[in-house]
Write a structure and sequence with these properties.
Elements: E1 12-14, E2 21-23, E3 47-53, E4 72-78, H1 84-108, E5 117-123, H2 126-129, E6 136-140, E7 145-151, H3 152-163
Antiparallel strand pairs: 1-2, 3-7, 4-5, 6-7
Length: 164
């Protein structure tokens, strides 16, 4: 099945509505958001999902509008240790067993949890930097990479840069 949106040849790709990587249902709808993948919203053709690695060089184009720029802004995310739902339970357990666990951890030499941080220096022109934060779709802590929504020309220049 071939859809009009270029990301869905063979039924899989990035949904033009929620940008999740999915395999479209038989009727062409996205299993994540339920919208029709063959009918992208206005302006969806300008944005692409790309994976950027922390140590990777970027093209000298604004990630939002693809105009030439040397200006950079840091895009960063910090790993959370636990969900908010588990924090109350953890507080109670820490209160009850904290001294014992602390002593055992000290004796065993266990290190405390240190949150991971992924930081990428992303090209953004001055007008686009005032438009708010870049949307982070996914963070891969093992690969130190971020999946971001960027302008299609920036994504194309990044692919070209990677081939060189």
């Amino acid at each position: 099945m071939r859809h009009s949106y270029t990301g869905f040849e063979g039924g899989s790709g990035d949904c033009p509505h929620c940008y999740m990587r999915v395999m479209a249902r038989a009727d062409g709808s996205c299993p994540s958001c339920g919208k029709d993948t063959s009918k992208p919203p206005a302006g969806a053709g300008e944005r692409r999902r790309v994976t950027l690695f922390a140590s990777e060089p970027c093209p000298a184009l604004c990630a939002r509008c693809a105009s030439k720029t040397q200006r950079r802004e840091k895009v960063a995310i910090v790993e959370e240790q636990q969900s908010a739902a588990n924090r109350q339970t953890t507080r109670v357990l820490r209160f009850l067993f904290g001294p014992v666990v602390g002593l055992l951890s000290f004796v065993a030499g266990v290190k405390t949890w240190n949150p991971k941080r992924i930081e990428i220096s992303l090209p953004l022109c001055r007008p686009c930097s005032g438009l708010g934060e870049i949307e982070i779709l996914h963070a891969s802590w093992d690969e130190s990479s971020l999946d971001l929504l960027v302008h299609r020309r920036f994504a194309k220049a990044l692919r070209k840069l990677r081939r060189e």
